[in-house]
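Notebook entry, structure prediction.
Reason for the run: the old model in the group folder had no record of what sequence produced it. Starting over properly, with the input documented here first.
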Amino acid sequence: MSFQKQIAQSLVWRGLYFVTVLLMNIFLSRYFEAGNAGWIFYVSNNFSFIVIIAGLTIENSVTYYSSKKEMNDSELAWFSIAWSFFVTLIVFAGLAVYFTLFKKDELINHSDYFYYAICYVGGIQMTNFFTALFYANKNFYLPNFIMAVLNIIVIIIIPKQAGTYNTDTSFIIKLYFTFFVITGFALAAAFIMQKQSWKTLSLPVFAHIRLLIRYAVLSLAANVIFFLVYRVDYWFVEKYCNATELGNYIQVSKLGQMLLVIPTIISSVVFPHTASGVSALIEMKDNIMRIGRITTMLFSILFLVMILSGKWVFPFVFGQTFKLMYVPFLLLLPGIWALSNLYILSAYFGGINKVKINVQGASVALLVILTGDILFIPHYGIFAAAIVSTAGYTINFLYSFFILQKEHTVSFGQYWSINKEDIQWLKNIIQK
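New structure, fully documented this time:
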């Protein structure tokens, strides 16, 4: 399957999935309002960090070796399930120790928190594994179709529950977290059935497991640093701002992440395509720059549209408690543009096994963001958080681009000079 055709298939099916994610986000935000929705997304953010630390993001290893066809997919599938259960047990034990020694969480009872954490961690871990396996096999349709259908079910249920005006919101919160684990099991079952992995229940040999863990450990620092670059501002905003400001800022950040859908989709194609060795590096360089020019054009249009309409669009879509989103979103948008291009570059460097470049750039960005957040968020709140994040994202992108520039004949000005060939390339993708 050609690079363009892979992008086209991924855009359609992953695009459908992310549309359902956005709709679910809107329903949750309107029902819970800024303060409570912010808390749910904040807790989910903490769980995401736990997944990275406890799980070692070993799904990256699975993607790498499955793409290179150096390990058996069925064995990787059973390993993924075993590892997911192992990580879930670790998190369960860790939470038990935390609540026994510290018991700091006073917002909800401990049994609820256990339930949310186990569902999220176990579900996300399996989802990460099996979407990685599907993508490594260049199957973008089935996993995203399954996830979209499950999200639609949640979207149908939420308004019905919200319409009852029941003051007990625990059911919807539990429903939200339950569907993470349902999604993980559904994807696992689909992959196992497709590959007929149920015929041979076996794990990779010890030498392969060691390779998987070694690759994951080497990239763990990168993943932890990346997470902190993208999310460390949540903790500062939670500490220094009120619940409504936190809800508005996290919604701005989540909306920014939704704008990264297309770059994420493309990067999920770039990584296995590059790792498989089927694409010449010069061809991939041309594709990277072409994608960057198209991204720049689209973000320029979006920025103008949001200047004119953002002040009323955000309260209209998410509810009146989200009036504070307008200015932080405009301040964060240039940083999201930088991240869009950085995602493609990071996938490229990861695919050619130069993860250290991604780590170095992210480390510089994290230092900038931490320093800025410490200095400015206590005084200027969510506006400072948006500006500092944009600065950090931009520095990270420029660092990676500088490395690309040393290896290939490219210039930063090429991001701003879209041409007819780029438009034709985009048309070809749409036609495919």
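Summary: The CA atoms of residues 136 and 277 lie 13 Å apart.
The old model has been moved to the deprecated folder.
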